[in-house]
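Q: Please design a sequence for this.
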């Protein structure tokens, strides 16, 4: 059972990201302030939900949240500043656009760059513990998936509509055959030569 809040004193926003480990596309982040009595039977860490459940939850969260915001940082900036900083920047951008200013932040994970003078708490696997982080995880994930499905029409060879840019075997084989697109993260060391070495190592382990 998810907890409705971490503390009662301040207005609290949950923050989470999606796409941090992907080979291609932006990293997305969401910030959500929920009513303290918000409840939905599906709400959980977005990775524990089916795509249909996430898509059902998204409009419910958007309608019932006190406020929410979703932001992204693109692949070029990820390569410039690194994925960790890009993830934090996406969270900051989402927080910038909230219609109500929170006084306390719940961050999924173990690190965060402080946002202005707002207190925060990092919580490992917080998207499976607190409703606001779970809601943020659902929004970040659904917005990113939608974005990657749209990119799929431009670069169908990688089947991003299915793998969403993650390093699946299908995606890696497509990179081996067709090379990298302009949306791939060059800082992730995903050139075909390196991928071939990784395949060999995986086969040895298996």
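A: Design:
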């Amino acid at each position: 059972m998810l907890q409705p809040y971490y503390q009662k004193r301040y207005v609290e926003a949950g923050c989470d990201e999606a796409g941090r480990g992907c080979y291609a596309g932006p990293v997305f982040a969401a910030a959500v302030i929920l009513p303290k009595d918000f409840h939905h039977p599906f709400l959980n860490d977005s990775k524990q939900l089916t795509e249909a459940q996430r898509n059902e939850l998204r409009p419910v969260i958007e309608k019932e949240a006190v406020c929410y915001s979703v932001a992204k940082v693109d692949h070029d900036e990820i390569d410039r500043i690194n994925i960790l900083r890009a993830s934090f920047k996406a969270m900051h951008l989402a927080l910038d656009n909230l219609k109500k200013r929170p006084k306390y932040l719940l961050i999924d994970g173990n690190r965060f760059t402080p946002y202005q003078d707002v207190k925060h708490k990092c919580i490992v696997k917080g998207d499976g513990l607190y409703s606001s982080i779970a809601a943020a995880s659902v929004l970040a994930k659904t917005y990113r998936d939608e974005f990657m499905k749209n990119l799929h029409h431009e670069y169908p060879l990688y089947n991003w509509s299915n793998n969403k840019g993650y390093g699946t075997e299908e995606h890696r084989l497509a990179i081996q055959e067709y090379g990298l697109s302009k949306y791939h993260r060059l800082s992730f060391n995903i050139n075909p030569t390196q991928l071939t070495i990784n395949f060999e190592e995986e086969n040895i382990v298996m």
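Q: Thanks. Anything notable?
A: The two ends are 37 Å apart (CA to CA). The longest strand covers residues 12-18.
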